Amino acid sequence: MKQLDTRNVIRHRSYNRFDKIASFVLLISPIIMTYALGSYNYAFILTSVLAIISLLKKGFNIKDYPRHILFFLLYWLFIHIITANSISELFSLGLIRILLCYLMYLGLREKEFFYKTYRIICTIVISFFFLQVIMFNIFGYRVPGVTTILPLAIEIDKSDYFTKIMYGERSSSFFSEPAAFVEYIFPLLCIELFRHKKINKVIVSILVIALLLTESGTALFGLTAVLLMFVGKVVFQSKQLVSKFIVVFLSIVVIVFSVYLYSSTEIGQRLLDRQSQLDSNDSSNESSGFVRIYRGFYVFSSMNTLEQIIGNDSPSKIKSQIAACHLEISEDESNELYFNTLQTVLIRTGYIGTFLFFLLLAGLFHQSDYCGKSLVVLLFVLSFISSMLFTEVMAIYFLFIIRNERCLAPPKR
């Protein structure tokens, strides 16, 4: 009996070590995916290897996982099988890898280690971001957070890329672009505002300033969503109707005044100037705003009725559809299939998959605390402007949203 208990203790410690390694790799994946070994970025390689080890070492019990997430992934897998245009597409590792990786991610148990490591990484990347901002405003250039030592995972001209991150107007810390930095640190803002009993105003202020200094539309949309959730929480906690009215009124005044002040600054003006990228009528536009927000809807509207209902997960067919719409991206062919999250769901899984995806978000919203609900709302808003569908960043959001004895949640102060 003692020998059996000893084996269980050893196995438990082994699982804990593995979970810590997998948690760390997951948390640095949004940074190391900038670099590649051949056709695959480092995050893809490391998480894929760990997912296989997890399957062999720990296995999984399907009953232990959120059914809404599994339903969507299984439907996506079904559509992938029936719409594959070739044997190579049928046995593509992409979706299978996503399924295996998410079985690993959602099975992580080292919640305190995950939260502390995430917080440390956020501290490092935010500190470096402010260093870049200060350097650029003083010297006119910044220390790049992306190194030239490792091969990059992008197919655009490397010298132009490094010139942009050193002398461009916007900093992005160790990430490939400001939007990636924004998406990574948003969960920390939600945790600081909604999960702790006492709000640390200094940390919240630092996070909001960092987000605004990115001059990113993603940051503005996300901050608006988080602010509305915060106002909603205050209103909900207020017991008197007069107090609720005063909170709403003051919130509107503060929002309007803040927008006015921000738009009058040089940073705000530059962000407003970038709104020209959001022209939906110019289908030849390759600006980041058009590609992120509108391009996918053009492609989806050109699909036949059956494909719009059930979806189409064949890359070759989607590329043909893109070419028929004359919406190719000439700058970087590796991003030819880039769409925001909602458009990816629509195109690849159709109306049925989109319904299941909304059920997924609704299920997570219903089952989580207020911090989790704010992250679900944030994910929903970012789905219209960012490509996060079942990426490592979305896994980080999920692990802070789902709260039970097995899943991850930071300890309350």
Please explain how this structure is put together.
It is a single chain. The protein has helices at 2-32, 42-57, 67-83, 87-90, 93-105, 111-139, 158-167, 178-195, 201-213, 217-237, 241-263, 266-273, 288-293, 295-301, 305-310, 315-324, 341-367, 370-382, 392-401, and strands at residues 36-37, 40-41. A two-stranded antiparallel sheet has the order 1-2. The chain has one domain. The protein contains 19 helices and two strands. Helix 1 runs antiparallel to helix 2 (42-57). By secondary structure, the chain is mainly alpha-helical.
Layout of SSEs?
Blueprint (H helix, E strand, L loop, with lengths): L1 H31 L3 E2 L2 E2 H16 L9 H17 L3 H4 L2 H13 L5 H29 L18 H10 L10 H18 L5 H13 L3 H21 L3 H23 L2 H8 L14 H6 L1 H7 L3 H6 L4 H10 L16 H27 L2 H13 L9 H10 L12
Antiparallel strand pairs: 1-2
Helix pairs in contact: 1-2, 1-6, 1-19, 2-5, 3-17, 6-8, 8-9, 8-10, 8-18, 10-11, 10-18, 14-17, 17-18, 18-19
